[in-house]
Amino acid sequence: MHPISILLLLVCVAPLPAPSIALPFKQRGLPHLGKSVDVESLMMMMMNDEEGSAFEEVHPLEHPTCPFGCQCHLKVVQCSDLGLHYVPHDIPPDTRLLDLQGNHITEIRENDFKGLSNLYALVLVNNLISKVHPRAFLPLSRMQKLYFSHNRLTAIPKNLPYSLVELRIHDNHIKKVASGAFSGLFSMNVIEMGRNPIKNSGLEPGAFDGLNLKFLRISEAKLTGIPKDLPYSLHELHLDQNQIQAIELEDLIQHSELYRLGLGYNQIRHIDRGSLYYVPNLRELHLNNNLLSHVPAGLPEMKHLQVVYLHSNNISSVDVNDFCPTSFSMKRTFYNGISLFSNPIQYWEVQPATFRCVSGGMAIQFGNYK
Q1: pLDDT higher than 90, residue 247
Q2: pLDDT of residue 52
Q3: DSSP per-residue codes, 102-145
């Protein structure tokens, strides 16, 4: 077995950063996608959001109720992992957080949430839900967070509350997102809908109309290209682990607000020259584990770009001007992460000046990690 290949550069100019053989970069700040939700963290978010809010107080009942087997405390009702087949009765009307994860619930009925007008978060993760009554969520006029991942849904539930800010519907059986599926959800910031068998044709024109979305993830799906008609407002777009083959010139034309773009673990061979011009505010670009043969054109002109993942591609050479502009005044922030390991690069041929706009040696990732 050949030893690990490490970049050996003779740096003659002191300010130039030395390469690092630290472990690969890891994505940070992404929603947790496991089959359980940390209720304590959710409670902290709820309390932070409540400060200065206009939620109405529901007067407590003289004899407070709590569903059999559940725990009810401080307006939090925890009924997780009880083997329930339906949403239980007798949920206190002042409930703010309802935790039903890890049960055997198969459907959501019309009156399951009747009277829960002050609910802030509903956790239905890791059940067997395949059917949702179209009127089930109408009473939840103040709900902000709906966690519906790891179920058997085949469509986006209808009549979602207009107050909804975050929807997680990861790992279901959704193949189509119909036009107007999120109609009226002007407060929505986050949609996590990865690991659904969605093809490009399954995203109907107008599917995301009206959304002022900041975060969207459709990873582990069946996309072959960057979807059209996504919200202009996106700050983060994650399309990792699909079957995307190229980035075409018009794919990013409406995404000038993007800060983070995730396209790792696809089949991207080609990136049209000029396509990155349309994302001038990008901070992170993830193109690892693709089929690229060279560093994408346009990186030196990206004034705010700080992190570029290019490891595990077919890149065989790196030019001195692939990453940095010729003038330092063109770069607003230095790179703090460039990963190039697991590429067939002759590392000793890379000029030290290639990384003249990198913050330090630890920011450069070279070497053939397996």
Answers
A1: yes
A2: 52
A3: TS---EE-TTTTTT-TT--EEE--SS---EE-TTTTTT-TT--E
